[in-house]
Design a protein that fits this description.
heterodimer; A: 324 residues; alpha/beta; 5-stranded parallel sheet; two-stranded antiparallel ribbon; 7 strands; B: 7-stranded mixed sheet; 5-stranded mixed sheet
Amino acid sequence: MCRIRAFEDAAEEASRGGVAAFGQAAGGSAQVRGPLHLSTGQEAVPAGVCAHLTPADWLTSTHRGHGHTLAKGASLEGMMHELFGKATGFCGGKGGSMHIADFSVGMLGANGVVAAGIPIAVGAAHSMAIQGRDAIAVTFFGDGALNRGPLAEALNWAAAFRLPVLFVCEDNQWSATTKTAAMSAGEGAAARAVGYGVPAVAVDGMDVVAVWQAAGELVQEIRAGHGPRLLHAKTYRFKGHVSVDPAAYRDPAELAAAMQGDPIARAREPLRAAGVPDADIDAVMREARQEVAAAVATADAAPWPDASAAFEDIQDTGSGRWRS
Amino acid sequence: MTYAGAAVAGLAKAMDEDASVVALGEDIGRGGIFGQYRGLLERFGERRVIDTPISEATIVGAAVGMALTGLKPVVEMRVIDFAMCAMDEIVNQAAKNRFMFGGQGRVPAVIRMPNGIWSSSAAQHSQSLEAWFAHVPGLVVLAPATPQDNHSLLRAALACGDPVAYFEHKELWPLEGEVDGSLDVPIGKARRVREGGDLTIVSWSKAVHWSAEAAELLAAEGIGVDLIDLRTIWPWDRDAVLESAARTGRVLIAHEAIQVAGFGAEIAATLAEESGARVARCGGLRIPVGYSPGLEAQARLTPQAIAQRARELLDRG
């Protein structure tokens, strides 16, 4: 959680002036360009879920995917370099924040299209079943994805084929800049999953221990061959939809109330109860910030991709560079 | 062997040779609605021949997940018109994955999208949309016109390692032809159907057969047609087309798809930029395909229409 918070704080700082939206002017000086979707406040969900996964398990994510990617085990450096658009980033500077991925730890990609990662995870789970491999797949999606067809299709598909996949609805209550409750029928993610015969559990997504416990039980059931499960984690996004969005549409009281439940602050309670000294807890965040600062420094110094990379990894059959 | 049977044989051979090849789609366990998967379930089992829900977005999305984790999926879209329900998965996911993630993964999937007018099937079962996919970086686009090519190009598509938009024609399934199972047809190489010195006709898919009939009509008038079956829409065989254009000086592009913004426009523009040839196009009108035979006929290309367009091109000097 601390690494995710530190990473995103640094990325936000490095993005200032980098994109025009929500009345903000674009500037050319930003180190992190384009839309940057922060998950500040939501850290307990990826941390609690991914603690149960191994590098052999597969993960798909959303456009708000830094936390998922870090929690799955990707390196800070590879990610920060990618956000800076450098050749040394995980995607060689071709993906950026919205398309962050580290296939080496089973993280098959963030996705710029809402709900699009869900069927891909279902396919990865189906692939494991076909190949007789033990790994499972996990897909994170937001509450905004509830109202897109691929989620409905994928829930049905996973249940019909009894696939080893965990659906995690990371419910931050906002679909971009619109309140999800205002445009979503029914009782939400868990109710919809149950409608497809997929057992679902709701959990306080601001409580990392609760997420960890609930996800652990679901992952165990999936690994035992009982088919798909859904975890509905209720959380909150402290920042706007993108980094330059001041979220002026949101009642400040709502944000203030949510921040009272900051998952990182809350995680201190069980640690203290277990006898961990405050100094040790403080050291975790301090070390995370140092680690991130080092990644920012190396990212800044890293080389840009060669222009020729724009023509690489498109397709082997039929080059993009047909014009002589 | 029929065009459908040739596809079954080609896919069966690929599945025999490579255990990572799987097929998924609606009704394919029963052989597919055109028989293009007949017998494969019995032969390869339900792990590798997967009957899916009617969920086009997830059929392609799942195929992307399968491809990224070690399989080579052959995906059935039933008719191209239904692939519209999976456009994000084809265009934003399958085609972009390798590039976006810096080459960390690849999507070796073949997406079969039966194309073209299908007798009295009306506006939502009769479209020809190959140009849409040719526009997307990352996709290979194939459109076989013969049983041999359907056999060989399907295998080539599976072997190429890139995502392939594969267009069989809905009305070609029963077409009979010789098939040499050992013949390799490379992607990107056109087929010369007949030689002639007066005019080049470039075509693909079912329109190749109409163009061949048109060439017969023209031959009776003493006009020699150099007929090229493009077979591959991307990467298309520019060398073959430019070479023929240099010999005949006149090129007619004939395709069933709507002429406006069709792939013929790309070929015509290339010829304008890189040859001195006179160019004309003969494609469908910009109308949805109607149900009644008389309405459907308005959307169909005919050998007579292609021949007439050829005469007009020759009359231009």
